[in-house]
Each structure stands twice: as C-alpha cells, then as structure tokens.
Amino acid sequence: MKEHDSATGPGTESLLDVLALRADTPGSEKVVHFNNAGCGLLAKPVLKTMLDHLNLEAGIGGYEAAAAQADEVAGFYREIAALINARPRNIAFAASATHAYSTALSSIRFEPGDVVLTTRNDFISNQIAFLSLRKRFGVEVVHAPDAPEGGVDVDAMAALMRARRPKLVAATHIPTNSGLVQPVAGIGRHCRELELLYLVDACQSVGQYPVDVEEIGADLLTSTCRKFLRGPRGSGFLFVSDRFLEAGHEPLFIDMHGARWNAPGEYEAAASAARFEEWEFPYAAVLGCAAAAKYAREVGLEAISRRTPALAARLREGLGDLSGVQVLDRGPELGALVTFSIKGWEAVPFKEAMDARRINSALSYREFAQFDFGDKDVHWCLRLSPHYYNTEREVDDVVAAVAELAG
Ligand SMILES: Cc1ncc(COP(=O)(O)O)c(C=O)c1O
C-alpha cells in the first residue's frame, strides 16, 4: 500500500497515485466534485496548454498562433485516435457531442419508411433528433425492449435488426440518466454481421472506460471532451470509419474546410473525417482536448475504469442503506453515474442543500429519460458522478451529508 492510502481510505486508490492526481487538479481542493458526468475538473497541464495558446493568440494573432502550433493541433487527431483505437484521419473535431451527432445524422440519406433502431435509454437529444427525422422524412423510430435486469436486450435488438433492416442502429454507451452501461460491443457484432450502419454515443464512457471503435464495431461514434475525459467545455469529436467515408456519406451542410469548391458548379468532399468539420476552430480548446486525452492515457484507462466505477459502487451502497433514499441505477453493469431519489424534498432545494455543502451534483428530470424514469415512476433524481481523483473519504462524506438531509 502506498503512503497516501491513509488519506483516501482502503479501496482501489492503490491503482493510482490519487494524491498526486489531486495535486494536479486545483478544483479538488475547493469542492467535492461529484459532477464529472456533467463536466470533469481540468488538470493543470490541460489548463496550462489552453492558457498558453490564448496568450499566444493575444500576442501574435489568432491565425498566426494556429499556424505556429500546427503540429500540436495535428496532435489532437493523434491523441483522440490513440484513445479510441482509430487513425487520425477518422477523427473530426466538434464543438459538442450533440453537434457531432447531428452532423453524422445529416450525412445519412433518410427516406420515408426507413427505420432507426435505438434503445429506451438513448440520450434525450438523440431521441429528439430521431423524432425530428420522423417529422421531416417519415422515418420510423423503433426502440428495442429492455432485458428484465435492465439495459437493452441485445438478442431482442438483433431480432429487430433482422426483421426490420434499419437504415441506422443507434446506441448510447452510458446514458445521462443512470449508472447503466449498455452492451455496445454486443450490439455492434450484430450490426457488422448484418452490415447495418451503427452510430454510438460514447459521451459518458470516453475517459471513464477504454473505448475501442474496432471492438465496438461502430461506423460512427460521438463524444464530448469535457466529461470524464476532463477536457474543456465546447469541445468534442466524431469518429467516422473508413467504411462510412468510402461509401461517400457527407454532412448535409459542408463548408470550405470539409470540401473543395472545384468549379462554379462543383465541390469535392475531403477524403478524411475533415469533411465533418467546419473551418473555424476554438484552437485553445482543440489543444486542451489533445492534452486531456494524453493525460487520460498517461493515467491509464484500465486503472481509471476500475477505480471510478468502484468509487461509484461504494457511494451506491452507502446511499442504498439510507432510509428515505432510493437508488435508481439498474443493469448488469453499472458505471460512475449514481442516481437516487429522496423522500420529502423537491428537486431544486435538495440540490441547493448539496451545493451549500460544496458537493457538486446534477439534477435529472423525467423529460431527460421518458422511458427510464417512466418505468421507475420518478419525476426527478439527483445524479452524483465521482471520478478517479475523488477519494473514498469524499464518498463517505457525501453519504453522510445525504443521510443528514434524508433524516
Ligand atoms: C450520453 C450523452 N450523450 C450526449 C450528450 C450531449 O453532449 P453535449 O452537451 O456535448 O452535446 C450528453 C451530455 O450530457 C450525454 O450525457
């Protein structure tokens, strides 16, 4: 056991030098940050990278700073590719996961009667996008049923793939509204076998688990950089497979960066995933993402993926023992998002009571998860999402705070 174990308590901290990681995380001294599913705390090297670039922009000009840092900017593609087992040419920068997702959807030529097959736990904005496709193109949105233990029933989903031949299969790896981890690789195996387009939302899993686009079998995969990857706000990415690029898919609106205007009546889309990007980049954020991806790989995704869900499991267990508190997470595999309801409180005052104790959390409402919260018959819940730099002691303090409020 390492020296710091006494400060963090027994558990998985021996996998990582938690005290050193906390020393690298200025925010960890100020708050108990259990809102990593919202936005992770920046590590010092990430912050420094961005501040240095902003200073360079102020000093020599924005275009000139980007040119001076061209190799570091290319590092964004290298780092994200290394993080998800892809090649740099298959990565596009995006301002958000949602922007990456809608750009990807816009590149699929939907026609009336096409089927989009998804799950009951896919992210709220993705569900709204599917409904918008239904409104505009007459696409049918089909939700695969859940298994009795929670999470999508992969066999039932595969049967729907065979019966309905969907134009698109879409799955969210870890939804925003519970601790569920969906079996995206299991779904992907069927998509590959049946040659169906497969879009994965990995927003909550990138930075929390090793994510491997080959193993998942994704044609397209989206993520933000700000959550468990601990990158800056306003940044994300889209992975686009060679299969998808070679099939000639391109976004509905493609700009002067994504395409060359060859002749007055003609353009040619970029060969790489750059066709999904726009010309303007927030370069400080792009460099911050590269630094965050590098940092996560140096910490080690295997160790992160053991420690982070283990902290969440400890939290779930502690909360589960409290009377008046109902832990809502269900599924064969649970990650670092812990959700619960509490008797006798309204949503906002309860979160404010947590804020007053310097415990960062997030509220989820019924409209975030119509199916899941409908099944659980809850109207809101509080979400707590620790990360590897949090400590066992913080987990226990949070349980004690909730116990006090529940009482
Ligand atoms: C599962 C999931 N997908 C997508 C998103 C949207 O990400 P962004 O806000 O970067 O568009 C979120 C954000 O909470 C999410 O949890």
Automatic annotation (TrEMBL):
Entries under InterPro entries matching the protein: Aminotrans_V_dom, PyrdxlP-dep_Trfase, PyrdxlP-dep_Trfase_major, PyrdxlP-dep_Trfase_small
Domain (Aminotransferase class V): residue spans on this chain: 34-397
Domain of life from the UniProt record: Bacteria
Entry-linked Pfam families: Aminotran_5
Keywords: Aminotransferase, Antibiotic biosynthesis, Transferase
Organism, scientific name: Amycolatopsis thailandensis
Gene Ontology MF terms: transaminase activity
Name of the protein described by the UniProt record: Aminotransferase
GO terms of biological process kind: antibiotic biosynthetic process
